[in-house]
Amino acid sequence: NAGVTQTPKFQVLKTGQSMTLQCAQDMNHEYMSWYRQDPGMGLRLIHYSVGAGITDQGEVPNGYNVSRSTTEDFPLRLLSAAPSQTSVYFCTSRVPSTDTQYFGPGTRLTVL
Amino acid sequence: ILNVEQSPQSLHVQEGDSTNFTCSFPSSNFYALHWYRWETAKSPEALFVMTLNGDEKKKGRISATLNTKEGYSYLYIKGSQPEDSATYLCASQNAGGTSYGKLTFGQGTILTVHP
């Protein structure tokens, strides 16, 4: 199993540009989520999904969209990038039986 | 306690020292408490998931305890080694409803073990 994969690893955007951060898992996990990590703020939940076709907002959803058309993929879309979205983004998936969440390698995004 | 809080923020110890950190979390609507180890330039790695009051888990030299009634968990490292240097995160998971599965993270304890 590749586990949780994320692409790209690094990205630089200009203010106002849009982009999609990709996340995929090959473990057939129903639950997936996106977090952002900022210095002094800890990991904060952006959006999550409990299965294909079902998504919900987390703590800091503004400026981001998600969709879950398949169990494997959970992309995060930045609609109009802002400098405040400069962060490291982590995608996770959860093992139902143990509640353990597995993290992807992260995407470091800089918005100029 | 409304948020998940970890103390201390950072800790420097000598190789061979034993150390412990604290995670405080809201005790109402509690479902599980997670501990993660996060090394620099890597992604967080799950250490323990604990659900029962009084639970104690162990992995090698690392162990954790849980008190759900008062809302705290301790992580212990016995005989710290330089490779234990990392940020240790805890996260609280609430029970049921729309909160199911969502983790609220603390800010972490940064451990540095000096040779």
Cα gyration radius of chain B (Å): 14 Å
Q: What is the makeup of the main sheet of chain A? A: 7 strands, mixed
**In terms of quaternary structure, what is this?**
heterodimer
**Separate helix tally of chain B:** 0
Total beta strand runs of chain B: 11
Poorly predicted regions of chain B are none
* Major β-sheet profile of chain B: 6 strands, mixed
Q: What sequence of helices (H) and strands (E) makes up the elements of chain B?
A: EEEEEEEEEEE
Residue-averaged pLDDT of chain A: 93
Provide the helix percentage of chain B. Answer: under 10%
Note the overall shape of chain B.
globular
Q: State the low-pLDDT regions of chain A, or none.
A: none
Report the C-alpha radius of gyration of chain A, rounded.
Answer: 13 Å
Through-space gap between termini of chain A? 36 Å
Strand content of chain B: over 45%
Helix content of chain A: under 10%
Q: How many DSSP helices of chain A?
A: 0
Question: Which word captures the global form of chain A?
Answer: globular
User: By helix and strand content of chain A, what is the structural category?
Assistant: mainly beta
What does this entry show, briefly?
The complex is a heterodimer of chains A (112) and B (115). Chain A is mostly beta strands and 112 residues long. Chain A contains no helices and eleven strands.
